[in-house]
Structure formats: structure tokens, C-alpha cells
Amino acid sequence: MAFAAGILWSFGGLLIKWVDWSPLAISGGRSGIAALVFLAYLRRPRFTWSPVQLGAAVAYSATVITFVVANKLTTAANAILLQYTAPIYAALLGWWFLRERVTWRDWLTMGVVSGGMALFFIDKLSLGGMWGNLLAMLSGVTWAIMVTLLRKQRHGSPAESVLLGNVLTFLIGIPAMVASPPTLAVVPGILLLGIFQLGLAYVLYAEAMKHITALEGLLVPTIEPILNPIWVMLLLNETPGPWALAGGAIVLTAITARAVSKALA
């Protein structure tokens, strides 16, 4: 299920760049639709209003907002590959908060990923591109927090946190949507983002988090950062810089090698 979620997520960069709307409006619009998808899926959501449930919701909202803004400011490849530094933070959070063991493979992966991440900032970037890269890194941090808190709820129903996060993001996006109402050209992209790329993808992901560790929850759907820049390059002709490509190759190789070595251990 996590792998299928990764495929659906991979269309995010393409659709976000295709939709001609402000980042906060896109975030709010797609999360409003995704919230309806989650309501249909859960039918009778169980809200405990616990710190863990609410914390995961806030982390989710921060993740989807920063990722959309990052995609508007930097290349789709930079945004997704820098977000995928999240295993570094998830391993530490899983060890500290969930008491999940961190192996030597995890530490080695974190070291290699950190080196690859540094290469993204060697390319010549505009000020907006630099902010986009930094927001993409922040999205990785908040994603790791979200995954850890979803994993903490594995014996309950983590999907409610995602539902609350979508509602929160929709509320945050209302002023931007009111200030710039959507045109008919925007609607198809927002529907695709809300129903499939966010709604259905996170339904699958929330279910998967009941059965895998926090770190595995970030490593399994690595198909996303592979496909994401490919869709954008093929359809929008956007190509990342050479140093970013090198850094991305290092990040993906390290994360994939870690997942394979653990599976074979």
C-alpha cells in the first residue's frame, strides 16, 4: 500500500506546477477535497483529540503546505528529493519517541544522505530557488514528525490525524482561495490533486503505517522521488541542475540500498 501511495504522490510536482494558483490556495483546495475522500473512507471517524493525534495533524498540514510552496519556488526534482531526506529525522525520532532500534545501516544512510543533500545548494539558484530548497528540507522534517506520530497510533486509527490535517490546511488556505477564486482551468488539476494525489494516496499510506516502522514508512514509497521529476521533465521540460542531479542520485541510492540491505538481512 505504501508503494502504491508513492506512485500517486509522484504526480504532485507536475500537477502543482500545472495549476496556475497561489501555493496556499492550491494547498487549501486540494486538502479540502482530500478531507472529503477521508470522510468517505472513515465514515465514522474516531477523534480522541490526544496530543499525538493533533500533533500528527499539525505536522501533516505543515508538510503539505511547505511542499507546495517549495514546488513553486524551486524545481520539482529539488523539492521532492530534499523532502526525502526525512529518513534522517525519522530514524532519530523513531529511536527517541517510539523506541525503535536504529542500526548501523541507518547511521550510514544518514551520513551519505547528508552529503548528497549538500550538493543541492552548489547549483546557481535564485533567491526564490534557495528558499524553495530550504522549505523542501523543512517539509522533510515535518514529514518525519508526522510519520512518527502516525506510527505511534498504529494500534488505533492514524487516518483521523490525516483527516484533521486536511481540514486544518483547508482552513489555512481559505483566505488565499477567497482572494483569488479558482478559474475553470484550475479545477481539473485541483480535483486530481485532492482525490488521487493526496486523498487516495494518504488513505493507502495511513493503512500501511499500521504494519511498518516509521523509517520504513519513508523508505518504501521511494518510487515517488524517482517518478516525480520524470513527469515534470517530460511534460513541462523542467530539468534540475547537474549538482542537484548528483545529490539526488546519492540520496536515492543510499535510501534504496538501506531498504534492500534490511530486507536481505
Structure classification: mainly alpha
Largest sheet: none
Percent in helix: over 70%
Number of strands: 0
Name the poorly predicted regions: none
What does this structure look like?
The relative contact order is 0.24. By secondary structure, the chain is an all-alpha fold. α5 (76-83) runs parallel beside α13. It has one domain (2-264). The protein is globular. It is built from 13 helices and no strands. The mean pLDDT is 84.
How does the SSE layout of this entry go?
Blueprint: H1 2-9, H2 12-18, H3 23-42, H4 51-73, H5 76-83, H6 86-97, H7 104-119, H8 127-152, H9 159-179, H10 187-208, H11 214-219, H12 223-236, H13 242-264
Helix pairs in contact: 1-10, 1-12, 2-10, 2-12, 3-4, 3-9, 3-10, 4-5, 4-8, 4-9, 5-8, 5-12, 5-13, 6-8, 7-13
Report a brief summary of the structure.
The protein is an all-alpha fold. Helices cover 78% and strands 0% of the residues.
List descriptors.
0% strand, globular, mainly alpha, 13 helices, 265 residues
